[in-house]
């Protein structure tokens, strides 16, 4: 299955970002992709307005999501991205959503909030309470993770033992000393230790690194973007997963299993 990874710099106006997403949807569909992954927090962003995600949050039936679904009409394409949705007490939910031409498939609320490196995502968001789901896209079982989740290997392992072939990681990975290296190490490790594909898509722009990448089950980066807006493509090959797990049966060789994770 052909997968598209679309990174861009999120603007302060939701309508501008919707137009950017629609353009990426059209390009991905034209190139024959069946799945398009977009970054985290794509409704609005502004380095000078730290509360913008709270003020601009929209419900799942709001104009931003509705606009994405309308853009998918007549297309054999699934889109995965993250948006802020209204919560309680002035907070929001960080929702990773899966959309196709029929509408909203599922929503995953980010488990691990980014309270690290002098940032505190919990000031704006309510953490999720459930392990992320797996969705079927064509022949591929797709597991969902969001940004900071990638630092927690138990989440990826749960998805792998439940049958995921591909893990998707929409992100807004903040720049900082060594942070690009952290991104590369974590994304690669999650693929290699679970012998599955990982597609990690980062927002680019003045604060975040971009650097979207697809890593195969042996830890090889098969597609990469730089720091500028881009749309890259890679194939998810079930035979590649099968062959890798035959020679590197780490999932089958596990000796300790956590019933909560699968």
UniProtKB/TrEMBL annotation:
Keywords recorded for this protein, A-Z: Hydrolase
All copies of domain CN hydrolase, residue ranges: 1-238
SUPFAM superfamilies in alphabetical order: Carbon-nitrogen hydrolase
Alphabetized InterPro entries for the sequence: C-N_Hydrolase, C-N_Hydrolase_sf, De_GSH_amidase, UPF0012_CS
MF term (GO), any: hydrolase activity
Signal peptide (from-to): none
Keyword Hydrolase: yes
Pfam families tied to this protein: CN_hydrolase (PF00795)
NCBIfam families, per database record: de_GSH_amidase (NF033621)
Family under the similarity heading: Belongs to the carbon-nitrogen hydrolase superfamily. NIT1/NIT2 family.
Protein name, UniProt field: Hydrolase
Species whose genome carries this gene: Acetobacter aceti NBRC 14818
Taxonomy of the source species: Bacteria, Pseudomonadati, Pseudomonadota, Alphaproteobacteria, Acetobacterales
């Amino acid at each position: 299955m052909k997968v598209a990874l679309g990174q861009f710099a999120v603007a302060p106006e939701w309508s501008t970002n919707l137009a950017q997403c629609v353009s990426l949807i059209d390009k991905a569909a034209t190139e024959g992709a069946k799945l398009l992954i977009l970054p985290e927090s794509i409704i609005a962003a502004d380095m000078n307005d730290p509360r913008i995600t709270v003020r601009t949050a929209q419900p799942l039936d709001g104009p931003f999501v509705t606009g994405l679904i309308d853009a998918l009409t007549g297309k054999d394409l699934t889109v995965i991205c993250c948006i802020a949705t209204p919560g309680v007490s002035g907070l929001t939910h960080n929702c990773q959503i899966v959309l196709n031409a029929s509408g909203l498939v599922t929503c995953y609320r980010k488990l691990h909030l980014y309270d690290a490196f002098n940032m505190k995502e919990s000031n704006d968001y309510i953490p999720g309470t459930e392990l992320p789901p797996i969705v079927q896209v064509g022949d591929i079982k797709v597991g969902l993770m969001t940004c900071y989740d990638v630092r927690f290997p138990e989440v990826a392992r749960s998805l792998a033992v439940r049958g995921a072939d591909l893990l998707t990681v929409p992100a807004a990975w903040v720049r900082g000393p060594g942070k690009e290296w952290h991104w590369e190490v974590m994304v690669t490790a999650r693929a290699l230790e679970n012998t599955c594909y990982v597609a990690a898509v980062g927002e680019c722009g003045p604060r975040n690194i971009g650097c979207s990448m697809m890593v195969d089950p042996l830890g090889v980066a098969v597609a990469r973007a730089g720091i500028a807006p881009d749309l890259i493509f890679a194939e998810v090959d079930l035979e590649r997963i099968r062959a890798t797990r035959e020679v590197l049966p780490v999932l089958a060789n596990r000796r300790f299993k956590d019933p909560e994770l699968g």
